[in-house]
């Protein structure tokens, strides 16, 4: 029989195997325990500060507190720009898991129109500081707030914030003077002080809002809050209150601004009124206007395109950027230039046959009155607006003297202290033409400048400022819009104020003023109908600026021209003559003669300021204007 196999266990062998395995297991456990203990020690000791900070950030966060924007008042304490409570939709990108999915959900919840979706997505990705909320929408409706509240659990990082929003009670008539605020864009974000503008979504874009942005904005504050895992605020741990912006009191008078806007209703143009002694701008209107409140929250594409494509250019601020030939309104200034340079005396006369000819030139430069005014001295030349007198004067002065003397009154320069976006206009010179066209200056161009035509371009604000300087007998005071910043009045002695204009004979002012008074009150004055019933002494000068040039033997006939090819109507005035308290410039585009279509508007402004309740209302002024339209005379 075969040998039986031994099947008994070998205890010694099994014990050796067990001991080896147990030793390996202990070794592995020891190593793993050592690694775990080492990792715990590293995290708890070496990186204690890092992870304690991260843990604290999950529980505590610092939020910016935007300041309240300063309010804007007129000179009488009437509120022009206020802050209204509203609700904004914001998003913190760092707290959003899937930005595209969240945005798509918001578009669905808010039921946004197709045109707004692209702008909505752009704003969500606008460059921000870490954990800085991006403004997606402003001025949410109650239904939008309700839908967002119901879906809040699906929208981490999205919040509805209560905030004050800029509002302009008289938006259309104040739009160009005040300007407006709007959302901070990417370019502005790169240049702004991030600490000062933390939590702020709006900034001044144009006008007073932009010029005084630093004073109106204020300083942002901070608050430290405790949040739960979802980011919801549980309690406030600390706070540094924001510093609100300064209150701004303007020189504007709302009643004067409203009157100017109503006078220009249905017309294109501008009215500017200034207090000569202080430079305070009482009214600065450009028509047509626009609703500036649309720009605060972000105007929709269709509305903006409508404003841009409007042939009347409502977005264009004619008061400070409109360039117009000054026409005959500059004749008093030219008369002073002739006196200063000794080219004329107050009693110098010419015989006007109805035209002027340069030596050895057959072309006739015609007076507006075809048969001429006969014997004309300086005062009568202003009263009847005789062109021939000023052709002669301009030729004798020359363009170099004309440029020098007119620059002294601010023509061709920015004249105001705090009017953002003001244009320089254009006071032509020999050097300017050479640089611009690489051509010499011709004598005929000097004659055109002598009656406020040709290359010469002024803004309504420039014309009002020059009129104020004239009323001050050469004393320069820069026009300004701010009366007080906070409780501090703006100083009268503003930097870069041009030097006063000095005359060798002070009586020359009186003689020029006499001519200007005869424009309104004299028997031959071009605007004598404007002086009917006048209760104070007023000096003024009408102007008619050609939009296109007439041929040598052509005569102007408004009825044969398209409306936008007709002459511009201008008028400048100040009153009372002995103690000027207001200076006004009026420009009405394509209206015709300034003595008819602009003079009555200037008279209405001076009446309103000097006579208060006794001044005629707008409807009365318009009735007089319509009556005189059929009797246009002079320029």
Characteristics of this structure?
635 residues, alpha+beta, Penicillin-binding protein 2a (Domain 2), Beta-lactamase, 2 domains, 7-stranded mixed sheet, 5-stranded antiparallel sheet, 21 strands, carboxypeptidase
Description:
By secondary structure, the chain is α+β, with helices and mostly antiparallel strands. It folds into 2 domains: 61-223 and 234-250, Alpha-Beta Complex (Penicillin-binding protein 2a (Domain 2)); 254-296 and 316-629, DD-peptidase/beta-lactamase superfamily (Beta-lactamase, 3-Layer(aba) Sandwich), CATH 3.40.710.10. Strands 2, 3, 4, 5, 10, 17 and 18 form a 7-stranded mixed β-sheet that branches. A hairpin with a 6-residue loop joins strand 20 (568-575) and strand 21. Helix 14 crosses helix 16 and helix 16 (387-407) packs across helix 18 (443-450). The longest helix has 36 residues, at 11-46. It is elongated, with a radius of gyration of 37 Å. It starts with 10 loop residues before the first helix and ends in a 6-residue tail after the last helix.
């Amino acid at each position: 029989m075969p040998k039986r196999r031994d099947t008994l266990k070998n205890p010694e062998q099994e014990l050796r195997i067990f001991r080896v395995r147990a030793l390996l297991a202990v070794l592995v456990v020891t190593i793993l325990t050592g690694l775990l203990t080492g990792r715990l020690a590293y995290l708890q000791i070496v990186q204690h500060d890092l992870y304690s900070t991260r843990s604290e950030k999950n529980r505590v966060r610092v939020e910016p507190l935007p300041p309240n924007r300063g309010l804007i008042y007129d000179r009488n304490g009437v509120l022009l720009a206020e802050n209204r409570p509203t609700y904004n939709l914001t998003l913190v990108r760092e707290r959003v898991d899937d930005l595209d999915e969240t945005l798509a959900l918001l578009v669905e919840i808010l039921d946004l129109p197709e045109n707004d979706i692209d702008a909505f997505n752009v704003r969500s990705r606008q460059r921000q500081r870490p954990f800085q909320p991006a403004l997606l929408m402003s001025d949410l409706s109650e239904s939008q707030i309700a839908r967002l509240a119901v879906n809040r659990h699906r929208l981490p990082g999205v919040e509805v914030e209560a905030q004050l929003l800029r509002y302009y009670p008289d938006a259309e008539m104040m739009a160009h003077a005040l300007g407006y605020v709007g959302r901070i864009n990417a370019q502005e974000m790169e240049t702004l002080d991030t600490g000062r503008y933390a939590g702020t979504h709006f900034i001044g874009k144009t006008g007073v809002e932009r010029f005084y942005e630093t004073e109106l904005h204020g300083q942002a504050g901070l608050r430290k809050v405790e949040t739960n895992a979802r980011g919801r605020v549980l309690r406030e741990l600390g706070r540094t209150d924001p510093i609100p912006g300064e209150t701004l009191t303007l020189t504007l008078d709302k009643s004067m601004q409203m009157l100017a806007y109503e006078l220009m209703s249905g017309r294109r143009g501008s009215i500017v009124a200034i207090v000569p002694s202080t430079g305070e701008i009482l009214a600065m209107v450009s028509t047509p206007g626009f609703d500036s409140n649309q720009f605060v929250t972000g105007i929709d594409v269709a509305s903006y395109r409508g404003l841009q494509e409007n042939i009347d250019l409502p977005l264009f601020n004619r008061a400070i950027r409109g360039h117009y030939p000054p026409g005959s309104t500059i004749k008093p200034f030219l008369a002073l230039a002739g006196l200063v340079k000794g080219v004329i005396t107050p009693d110098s006369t010419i015989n006007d046959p109805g035209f002027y000819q340069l030596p050895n030139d057959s072309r006739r430069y015609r007076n507006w009155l075809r048969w001429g005014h006969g014997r004309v001295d300086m005062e009568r030349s202003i009263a009847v607006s005789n062109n021939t007198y000023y052709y002669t004067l301009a030729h004798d002065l020359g363009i170099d003297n004309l440029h020098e003397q007119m620059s002294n009154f601010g023509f061709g320069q920015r004249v105001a202290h705090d009017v953002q976006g003001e244009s320089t206009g254009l006071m032509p010179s020999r050097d300017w033409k050479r640089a611009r066209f690489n051509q010499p200056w011709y004598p005929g161009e000097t004659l055109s400048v002598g009656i406020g035509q040709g290359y010469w371009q002024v803004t309504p604000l420039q014309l009002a400022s020059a009129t104020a300087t004239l009323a001050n007998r050469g004393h320069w005071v820069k026009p300004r819009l701010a009366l007080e910043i906070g409780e501090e009045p703006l100083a009268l002695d503003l930097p870069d104020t041009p030097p006063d204009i000095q005359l060798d004979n002070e009586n020359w002012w009186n003689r020029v003023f006499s001519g200007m008074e005869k424009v309104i009150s004299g028997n031959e004055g071009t605007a004598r109908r404007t002086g009917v019933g006048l209760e104070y002494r007023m000096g003024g000068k009408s102007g008619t600026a050609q939009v296109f040039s007439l041929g040598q033997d052509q005569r102007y006939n408004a009825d044969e021209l398209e409306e936008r090819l007709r002459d511009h109507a201008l008028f400048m005035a100040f009153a009372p003559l002995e103690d000027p308290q207001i200076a006004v410039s009026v420009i009405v585009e394509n209206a015709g003669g300034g003595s008819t279509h602009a003079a009555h508007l200037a008279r209405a402004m001076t009446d309103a300021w000097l006579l208060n309740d006794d001044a005629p209302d707008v409807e009365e002024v318009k009735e007089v204007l319509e009556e005189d339209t059929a009797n246009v005379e002079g320029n």
